[in-house]
C-alpha cells in the first residue's frame, strides 16, 4: 500500500463516519459540525486527485459560507430535543417510502460495482486552476455563462422574496 | 515515493520558528496596544513589570494560567472546550503560505542546498488564505453558541453576518490584484514586486491598486473584529460578547488568537500590497552581503512592515469610535462591494486597452 492509498482510506473512513453522524445525531448543531467535517474529508480527496482549486473552493463556499449560514439559522431557531416538533404519521410514512426507494437505487448501483478497482489518486492537471480556467472559458464558455445567469436570477429572486416581506410588515403596522 | 528527510526537518524547524515568532509578536502586541493606548490618551501605560513594563505580557499570561477554570453548567461542554482551540488553530494556519524571505543557499558537505523561507508554496496561494479566513469565524460562532448566554449568542450571530458580508468585498478587491499579477502564488506575487522602482513605475502593488488596497484594509479590520468594527465583542453593549463566559487560559487563547490574527493579516497585507520582503536598492545589498545575511535582512524588512501595519491597526482602534451594526452592514454591502466591482472593471479595462500583451 502506498502513501496515497493509506491517505485515501483514512479520508474515506473519515467522510463516511462523519456523514453517518450527520444523520444520526439528535442535536442539529452537531449535525452541521459533522457535515463540515465531511466537507473537509471531501476536500482532502480533491487534493489527493491533484484538484487543489476544487478542494479550496469546496472549503470556501461550502464549509466557509453556506455552513456558516446553516449554523446561523439553527442557532437563531434554537432547536434542541425539548422543542423537537412531533411529526405526523403521514410524514413518517412518506419518509419510509422515499428512504426505501433510495435504498433500492443504491443497491442496484452497488450490485455491479467492482471492489477490486484501485482508487484514482492523481487525475493529472485538470484540477489545477490554470488548466481549469482555460477549459472553462474555451470549451464550456456558454454553459458557464448560462449558469452564472441562473445564479443571478436566483439571487434576484431571493431579494424579491425578502423585500416583499418587509413591505407587508410595514403595511400591517 | 522517496521522502527527503532534510526537507521535512527544514520545514519542521521553519514551522516551529514561525509559530514561536507569531506567539511572541502576539504577546508583545498586547503590550504595544496598551502603550499605544496610553500614549494616545496621555497616560503612561504598563510600567511596573520590568523596564517600560516589558514583562507585562508574561505577567498577564501567568495570571491567566493560574485563574480558576470555569465551565458553565448549561453550556455544551465539548464545543465550549473546542471553540478557543479552533480559533487559535485557524489563526495560525495562514502563516504556512507567507513567504518570509528569499531563498538562501547552505553549502554543506553533500553540496549546496537551497532553503526556502516559506512552509508551502501552493499554487492556490491566496485562495488558501480565503479558505482559512472563511472557516475562522467558527471559533467565535461555536464559542458564543456553546456558552448558552444571550449576549454570547448575539455576538456569535453578529460575528457570522459581519464575516460573511466583508468576505465578499475582500474577495472582489483581490480579484483586481490577481488580474495584474496573473498568479495566485504568494511567492510569485512577491517576486513580481522586486525592488521598488523598475525604471518606469513603482513595482509594489499598492501603487498599482490603491483603491483595492483600501478596500482590502477596511475588510481586514472587519474580519479581524478590530475597532471600529469590533461589533462581536463590543464591551459596552454585549459585555465582551462571545468570550463572556470564558475564563482562565481559554479566555487567554481567544484574546491571544486575535493578536495572532492581526500579525498574520499584517503580513498578508505587506506581502500582497507592500512588496513583502522587497525593499529599495535590494540588488546592491544582495551583491554586497552573503545570501544567508541577505535573507535575514529581507525577513527584517518584512517584519518592519508588519510592525508598521500592527501599529496602524492600533492607532485606528484608539482613534475612531465603534460603528453601529446596521451602519457596518450597510457599508459592507452598499459601499464596499460596488466600489470593489468598480475597481475590478477599471483594472480590467486598463489592462485590456493599455497593457494588452498580444
Structural notes for this entry:
Chain A is mostly helical and 173 residues long. Chain A has a single domain, classed as NADH-ubiquinone/plastoquinone oxidoreductase chain 6, subunit NuoJ (Four Helix Bundle (Hemerythrin (Met), subunit A)), CATH 1.20.120. Helix content of chain A is 77%, strand content 0%. Chain A is globular, with a radius of gyration of 21 Å. Chain B is mainly alpha-helical. Chain B has one domain (71-354). Chain B contains twelve helices and two strands. Chain B has a two-stranded antiparallel ribbon with strand order 1-2. In chain B, helix 1 (5-40) packs across helix 9 and helix 5 packs antiparallel against helix 8. Chain B starts with a helix and ends with a helix. The mean pLDDT of chain B is 82.
List its salient traits.
heterodimer; A: 173 residues; mainly alpha; Four Helix Bundle (Hemerythrin (Met), subunit A); B: mainly alpha; two-stranded antiparallel ribbon; 12 helices; 65% helix; 4% strand
Question: What's the quick description here?
Answer:
The complex is a heterodimer of chains A (173) and B (358). Chain A is mainly α. Chain A has helices at 3-24, 28-48, 52-77, 89-111, 129-138, 141-172.
The first-to-last residue Cα distance of chain B is: 41 Å
Work out the helix count of chain B: 12
Please identify the oligomeric state. Answer: heterodimer
Kindly state the number of beta strands of chain A.
0
The fraction of residues assigned to DSSP E strands of chain B is under 5%
Tell me the helix content of chain A.
over 70%
What is the global morphology of chain A? globular
Outline type of chain B: globular
Helix content of chain B: 55-70%
CATH level-3 fold name of chain A: Four Helix Bundle (Hemerythrin (Met), subunit A)
Tally of domains of chain B: 1
Radius of gyration of chain A: 21 Å
Q: Topology as H/E string of chain B? A: HHHEEHHHHHHHHH
What is the architecture of chain A at the second tier of CATH? Up-down Bundle
The string of secondary-structure elements of chain A, in order, is HHHHHH
Structural class of chain B: mainly alpha
- For the residues shown, what is the average pLDDT of chain B? 82
